[in-house]
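Me: I'm a chemist; would you kindly supply a protein sequence with its structure tokens?

Assistant:
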Amino acid sequence: MEKEKVSSGNIIDFRVLRRLMTFVRPYRVRFYILILLTVLLGVLTPLRPLLIQYTLDRDVVTGNYSGMVNVMLLILALLVVQSIFQYVFEDNLPFAQPFRSGGANIVLAKLFDNA
């Protein structure tokens, strides 16, 4: 009878994370860039709806059209920055290629095979 694998019950399994880091080691700088971009994109994404809400609540209601134009230009600049980050995140880092081409299944199988 095969031994059942019992999960630790933690959100992060540090044994698996340690094994993952051995595969990531050659791509360490790119990995950290991906982590940084993930955090930045996570922060930038909800800013646009908040700026739109701010514009509607403050500038449109009071008729402050110059303030509305300023916030809309800020939203446009934010969209450009977010698009650049998204491009770098998805297309420009070869480290992400195996995960988009289905190679993630192979990596995950190797990781969890001996966990």
Q: What stands out?
A: The radius of gyration is 21 Å. The chain is about 75% helix and 0% strand.
